[in-house]
Amino acid sequence: MAPSTGSPALIRATFDPNLSAVLHDVTPLVYTDDGLGAHDVPDHVRAASAVRRSAERLVIVQDDVNVLVLRHGAETGAILLPAGEGGRRSFEPALGNKHAKLDLEACAALPDGRLVAFGSGSTRARERLVVLGERDSVRVVDGSQLYARLRADTTFAGSELNVEGALVVGDVLRLFQRGNGAVVHDVSPVNATADLPLREFVRWLDSGPPLPPLAGVTQFDLGHVGGVPFTFTDAALLPDGRVAFLACAEASPDTYRDGEVLGCRVGINDDASVRLGTIVHPDGRPTRLKLEGIESRSDTPGSFDVVADMDRPDEPALWGRLDVRLAPFSGEL
Fold this sequence. Notes:
The protein is mostly beta strands. The chain has a single domain, classed as Tachylectin-2, Chain A (5 Propeller), CATH 2.115.10. The protein has helices at 144-152, 154-157, 198-207, and strands at residues 9-12, 14-15, 19-28, 50-54, 57-61, 67-72, 75-80, 104-109, 115-119, 128-132, 138-142, 163-169, 172-177, 191-197, 215-221, 224-225, 228-237, 243-251, 260-269, 274-280, 291-296, 303-308, 318-326. Strands 2, 3, 16, 17, 18, 19, 20, 21, 22 and 23 form a ten-stranded mixed beta sheet that branches. A hairpin with a 2-residue loop joins strand 4 (50-54) and strand 5 (57-61). The longest helix has 10 residues, at 198-207.
C-alpha cells in the first residue's frame, strides 16, 4: 500500500469543559411490527449504526441486519432489505456469516428526499450502498469502484478504510472516515473527511461512471483516553451550517472486530476548528455507550436524536436524546 501524495489539512480538536452534552431518555428499540421472525429478523433492533430524519420519522440504519428501522412516535417498524448469503438477514460470528453482512454504517439525506446508506468499505464485501426512495422502494448499488477510489487515497482512508458518516453539506457530500484501524505496511489509521461534488455523486448513483472526484481531505486529531483514540462514528448538520459529530474511543484491534468502549464525545466543527465535550448521563456519569448515530432535532436547537449499538445480538440497540449546550451559557449551538 503506497500513501497518496500531498499533505491534507489537519485539525487538532480542543476539549472544551464548557461544552455540556447530556444524554436523556435512553430507550431500548423493540419492533412493534409482528411477524419479522419469519424473515430472520429478531424482535428487537439488533444494531444501530446511523440515523437520519425522513419527513416525520427517523430511519435507523443497521450494520448487522439487512433491515432499515422506521421510528415514528412510539412505533418502531422495519423495511426489509434483500436477504444475503444463505437467505439470511442477520449476521454474526456465531452464525459464521459476519463476513457477508452489508455493514451499513452511514446515511445521507439527499435534497430530492432519498436516503442513501453506505457500507463501511472495511472489507471488499462491504462496498454496497442502499438507496431508500419513494414509497419506501429499496435499491442496492454496487459501490466497488467508488470504494476503490476512496481506499486508494490514504490521506483519507489511512491504513484501513472505514466510512462511518455521510452528510450533505451545501453542494457536497461529505464522508467521514473512522480511524480505528490497525497500522498496515507503515500506514497509520486516520480520522478524516473528504468531499464529493453532490451533483456528480447523484449522477454516478443513478447512472454509473464517471466516478465523482474526491477533494478537500481534512484529517482530525480527536484526542484519546487510556491510549485509545477517539474516532468518528457519525455526524449531523446544524441549522447554521456547522457540523456536529460523535466520536468514540473503542479499543478495537482493527476495523473488523469490536472492542471495549472507553468513552464517547460530541464535537462541533466550524471548518476551522473543533471543540469536543464529554457526553454524560443526567447523573453526571460519562457514558460508555457506543453512540453511532446522530441527527439534529428541528424542534429544539442543540438537541439531537442519537442511537447506540450494543454489539451484542441479544441486546436491543438504544435510542436517546442528546442535549448539547455551552455551559455556563455563552452562546447557542
